[in-house]
Amino acid sequence: RVATMQCISCSPFSIIHCSSQDAGHPATALQSPSPWSTGWLSAKFCLYPQELVLGLEEPLKVRKIQLVSHPHCIASKVEFYIGDCPPDEPRHVNNVRWSRLGHVALLSNQSGKQKRELKSIHLEANGSFVKLSLHSNHSNAERNPYNQVGIIALAIQSQPLDADDDEASKSTPAAAAAAYQSPYVDLGFDLTCHPRLVQLIRELDWEKQQLVAKELLGAAKGVQARISAAVSAGQELAELELAKAKAIAIEDYGLAEDYKIAIQNKLDAAVAAANAIAFSPAANAPVFNDTAYNEANKEESASELPSVAMDTARTERQSEIGFIDGSTGGGATDRRNVLALSHDDTPLPTLQNQTVNEEDEQPGSGGRKSADAINEQVVDGAETAVDQTTSDTGALPSDLLAKARSTSRSMRAEALSELTNLVGNFGSDSNNNATPGEFYQAVLAVCQRGFEDAAVTVHEAALPLGRALLVGFVDRHNLPGSDLHYGCCRLVPPLLVKLGDTAARIRDSSREFLLEMAGWPKVRQMPDAPVVHLCLRPMRRGAATLERQAVARVQLASALYKQLGLSAKSSSKAAKSGGGSGGGGGGEVSLGALLTFGFSALSQRHAETRRAAEALLLEVASRPDCRDRVKRRLAKATSEAADASGGGGDLPAFKSLAAKLN
């Protein structure tokens, strides 16, 4: 029924040609988008540009093309072409006359998170073939070592060639119905709803619009209620399908069978409700426990079912940019916000060059969200399994936990300040029945989340909490050293990440707190010096590390060396073992660990990082008892760099250091 509509609808297509494809990700996967789509990937080390040719069933008026890029194998640019065969020639891809429509650039996603970019390109062009030309990939040696490009999902929205735009522009109810674009005709909706219900929901939405055009508003209200129920059921079914696939992957076939029966019953009930038919579940259907389902999915993989958070911006040729963020961390993500996606229910503009308009509104939100607001929304939704465990134990007040997870940065900062006072008064509060160990673990999870927060005020409020927890609380309640060690290992990594933050206040406060932690007496007395060990962890060659963060880590290592001194007692052992634990017996910096870190920084691709590493190594070599050891490690590192780069690459940096040492 939808195929005969004059309004814009999703057009099926077939893959006519692709330059290359990975064995496990064929191009034909793009023909049926779904929440579990893995999409298309090019072959390893392929030649560029890669081309995909899509064939429509008939010549159509194409109005919008949408694509979701791969989270890591991302093309730097995608060009779009449309074409058709001359009337006197056979309908074959070799006879197509192409017209270039334009191009869009894709973001590189250097964050490493499971984010997928959604592009919506508005246009108005006629044809029966669409071609995509994908240019070389963004560099990502860690997650895309084979230099591939990929697309997760693709959709084409079009109208019949005989659609009357002039008639649709008239202000009559019938014309309004003809010009209507359903919010459910969108690729973002396809990736969050069960495929069996997508088409049914679109048909119901068209039926509702026809009733509105005839001013049968009571009937339209009933259809809208059926649509809402079908959307909710479709999103729940998509989650259940992924849970079933996960159970099969871990060979828990009993749980998978329960999921299968529950899916079938829920699907039958949803279809019957949408068609206004009474439904009775099977007599032998198992009772599906939602609590057990949530527990089974608490560690759901980020790539299995992405949550959707959109921000739109007008770019060249009226393209809309969005992100499908899959780093959920834990818990089944709520998909009921599907109408907050970037569905465009306004008449589509023609294909022409436009400048960026910063005041574009995001449909469903009342206005364009700022980057900070989007970051806060993502942070608020990313509850970890540790946070869930914390709330279940009851070690912290539930209202305080709710405030710590608020979307308001001021509320989160206030919650951390209250928690700092609660740490200082623990034991005198008769209402808290948790043991010191349980309370310590609960507060540690909240403190780690505060260190990871993007807001400056929240991050700075978390620092006093970490100090009160690791110093005052551990001493007052005589917690074992293993708890202090565990706390340091939880809090140091997010602080190291914040060394590369764009906010100078966050960078400076993180650096000062790390130096303070390394100087705490109990931390220095630990045999393995966890803070120094984590700070001097070597950088991986070719890793996608921000230059600002890499330089800050080298500067932090130099500051630790000056503050704590060099361990002469363990220098030889550390040098033989390739770095040891990072600290000496008295909390000093191990020479072996410092040299390992310094030469790993010297092999990075950023020039500023190499200069900082060279300065650090020269400073260590200025000590008479360390000069010979630095030269020996330099010879070994030079040989390793030559083997890794085939005789070139990082050798100039090592030769420069050798010349200065001599």
Automatic annotation (TrEMBL):
Q: Where is the Centrosomal protein CEP104 N-terminal domain?
A: 39-156
- What residue intervals traverse the membrane? none
UniProt GO cellular component terms: cilium
What InterPro entries does UniProt report for this protein, alphabetically? ARM-like, CEP104-like, CEP104_N, Galactose-bd-like_sf
Superkingdom assignment:
Eukaryota
Region called Disordered, residue ranges? 344-371
Q: Which PANTHER family match?
A: CENTROSOMAL PROTEIN OF 104 KDA, GLYCINE-, GLUTAMATE-, THIENYLCYCLOHEXYLPIPERIDINE-BINDING PROTEIN
Q: What is this protein called?
A: Centrosomal protein CEP104 N-terminal domain-containing protein
Organism for this UniProt entry: Macrostomum lignano
- Show the taxonomic lineage: Eukaryota, Metazoa, Spiralia, Lophotrochozoa, Platyhelminthes
